[in-house]
Amino acid sequence: MKQDMSSLSRDILSTIVENKEVAPDIYLMTLEAKPISTVAKPGQFAMIKVGDSHCDDPLLRRPFSIHNISGDTVQFLYKVLGRGTQILSAAKPGMEISCLAPLGNGFNILSNKSHCLVGGGMGIAPLLFLAKYIRKNQPGSSVHVLLGARTQKELIAIEDFASQNLDGLEIATDDGTAGHYGLVTELLEKQAWSTGEVNVYSCGPEPMMKAVAHLCQKRKWHCQVSLEALMACGMGACLGCAVSQKGLGAKKYLHVCSDGPVFSAGEIW
Ligand SMILES: Cc1cc2nc3c(=O)[nH]c(=O)nc-3n(C[C@H](O)[C@H](O)[C@H](O)COP(=O)(O)OP(=O)(O)OC[C@H]3O[C@@H](n4cnc5c(N)ncnc54)[C@H](O)[C@@H]3O)c2cc1C
Ligand code: FES
Prior knowledge:
Elements: E1 10-23, E2 26-32, H1 34-39, E3 45-49, E4 62-65, E5 68-70, E6 73-79, H2 83-89, E7 96-103, E8 114-120, H3 127-137, E9 142-149, H4 158-162, E10 168-173, E11 180-181, H5 184-189, E12 198-203, H6 206-219, E13 222-226, E14 242-245, E15 249-255, E16 262-264, H7 265-268
The structure holds flavin-adenine dinucleotide and FE2/S2 (inorganic) cluster.
Residues 231-234, 236-241, 255, 257 line the site of FE2/S2 (inorganic) cluster.
């Protein structure tokens, strides 16, 4: 699924419009980032310099999916995990932040009638932009979104998805505090699309995406998965984000930043 987007990627100094906590330890950052907003595609990501744009600490940028684009603004939805995201969460409106984007291939939006987006945890981050994009560019197709989280408090951006005029929006929580009591993959299992009729796009924890991929294989549904890996450069130079290609093991590696982050599920599992 490699696409050469390198000619469109730029290091853009963007102004922070807003950076607010939307759920415990989860932030939504809005940037004024015009060149990115005009060329980015769903599933692409940015390497963000989380510290002061004039200093080298932390040295490595951090990768974040493009969550939403509206006019000239680009949004990122991120969870505070370690030092980099902690620093990012303290950034204030008006500050400038350096963003290398758009990177990666993005989702391959096929022209079948039905699309089903399956997100788990922070894996919902790239799916809002995808849902909006399909709605706009394929008005005759149906779009279903299935979202899973551990508990209700971690369900984020539900209103944003609900306002996309979707054909279906279903929710699952591991503890039953909202929607279906169980896994988001159980919601996918209930769907009755016939062979080849649906495109499934998935992002979330690896075991969830693996389960989605195996279910789609059984039902003969097209399936794409957006992978995560530790990244140093984000553009194919350090070879730090390698994953082995299915069936070839150590013989053939794919790089999540430059060959992905989106892969046909059959390439990986
Ligand atoms: C293409 C891509 C898109 C991403 N999009 C988003 C997004 O939209 N929202 C979001 O919240 N996160 C996203 N991530 C993950 C995000 O990049 C990491 O959470 C972030 O870099 C952590 O930085 P840190 O300095 O806070 O944590 P660190 O101190 O670097 O690490 C803290 C902990 O998080 C783990 N970790 C760090 N980076 C990753 C990673 N890439 N994948 C899995 N575990 C990691 C570490 O192993 C460690 O356990 C994405 C990752 C990739 C590769
Ligand atoms: S992060 Fe450097 S090659 Fe992918």
